[in-house]
Specification:
With 149 residues, the chain is α/β, with parallel strands linked by helices. The chain is built from 4 helices and 8 strands, in the order βαβββαβαβββα. A hairpin with a 2-residue loop joins β3 and β4. The model has no long low-confidence stretch (mean pLDDT 87).
Length: 149
């Protein structure tokens, strides 16, 4: 089964989660810019993620999904990193976007990431040490679980 883990990360939190998921899926994580939307038609399962901003997926991720061709029947897993909350509406928004492209939602995963004081300003003082070993292990298990669906 050919799989892809594609992510967008500003601070490195989402990259760590993407790499753990990719390990579970037996593949390498790729940054959004490393994959052309048309290439995704060659994959059986796609895992896509990014950070949450104010309860919504990052605009870079949303724009990537909007530019995807129809991928009818392709399985998709979604993941995100958050500071405090917002993962449920962000995943719901991403799920709607991928289902509009004909993809079949296979599950989601979210982890807390180290964050800054306000928006993207100031030192990273909240949630130091996140994503932690437990979250990375859970992300790897999520990757394995996607392959079995």
């Amino acid at each position: 089964m050919k799989s892809a883990v594609i992510y967008y990360s500003k601070s490195g939190n989402t990259q760590k989660i993407a790499e753990a998921i990719a390990t579970g899926m037996g593949t390498k994580a790729k940054r959004l810019g490393e994959v052309k939307p048309k290439e995704l038609a060659t994959y059986d399962i796609i895992c896509l993620g990014g950070p949450v901003h104010y309860g919504q997926p990052d605009k870079v991720v949303s724009n990537f999904i909007k530019n995807l061709p129809e991928l009818k029947g392709k399985k998709v897993g979604l993941f995100c990193t958050k500071s405090i909350s917002g993962d449920k509406p962000a995943i719901a928004a991403m799920r709607k976007e991928v289902e509009d492209k004909g993809m079949v939602f296979a599950g989601s995963f979210c982890a807390i990431g180290q964050s800054r004081f306000f928006a993207n300003f100031g030192p990273r003082i909240f949630h130091r040490g996140h994503p932690n070993i437990k979250e990375l292990s859970m992300a790897e298990e999520f990757g394995r679980s996607l392959l079995s669906k």
